[in-house]
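Q: I'm building a small set of examples for a reading group on sequence design. Run inverse folding on the following structure and report the sequence directly after it, with nothing in between.
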């Protein structure tokens, strides 16, 4: 998969397709990134929440509408799943070769679309892409603890992080391989800080409530 030729061709296609809006392009780029993470397979599974977060789409209705549009306009093949425990499937149609088909736009002009064409790339290029996408995981627990210590976080959080991701095979959401464990560790720290802040605010709120009383007491009465 020569992703440079593909991206050059698909963005040229975007510039000629008047039906697209920024949300369509954002969604396509997010899908391309997940395709990249999965090493460009013929078909791959997606998780709606993860794709929406990466594409910065807040509405489920907008997400499904744009996904259906990209399918209808022959940028992708979308195979929805009605099983809540199994993600939908996506096939990215390949761009970047000479074959093309025509499809009308909202202005009535024809646009070029390349569907299912094989892309030519040399062996060295493929090896470079594979090495770049190879998951970067810690060598051992000590490397994780050293990283947390460097960031001035307690070692117990480093152990929690290492044990959690080791138990789920170093995958995000149980599906996508982690490509940079240090970035995931930073997200872990941010989440832990948010949880600690929420707990502190909750404790302060409870303490304030305990100091309040709705009863009017008469301290002149004998005990």
């Amino acid at each position: 998969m020569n992703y440079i030729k593909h991206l050059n061709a698909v963005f040229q296609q975007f510039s000629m397709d008047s039906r697209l809006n920024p949300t369509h392009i954002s969604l396509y780029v997010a899908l391309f990134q997940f395709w990249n993470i999965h090493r460009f397979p013929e078909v791959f599974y997606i998780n709606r929440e993860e794709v929406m977060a990466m594409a910065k789409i807040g509405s489920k209705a907008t997400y499904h509408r744009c996904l259906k549009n990209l399918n209808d306009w022959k940028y992708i093949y979308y195979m929805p799943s009605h099983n809540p425990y199994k993600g939908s499937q996506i096939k990215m149609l390949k761009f970047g070769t000479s074959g093309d088909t025509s499809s009308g736009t909202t202005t009535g002009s024809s646009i070029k679309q390349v569907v299912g064409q094989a892309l030519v790339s040399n062996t060295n290029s493929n090896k470079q892409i594979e090495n770049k996408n190879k998951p970067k995981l810690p060598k051992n627990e000590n490397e994780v603890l050293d990283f947390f210590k460097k960031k001035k976080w307690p070692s117990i959080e480093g152990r929690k992080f290492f044990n959690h991701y080791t138990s789920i095979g170093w995958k995000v959401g149980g599906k996508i391989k982690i490509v940079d464990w240090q970035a995931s560790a930073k997200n872990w720290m941010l989440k832990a800080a948010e949880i600690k802040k929420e707990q502190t605010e909750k404790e302060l709120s409870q303490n304030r409530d305990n100091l309040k009383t709705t009863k009017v007491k008469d301290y002149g009465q004998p005990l």
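The CA atoms of residues 61 and 67 lie 10 Å apart.
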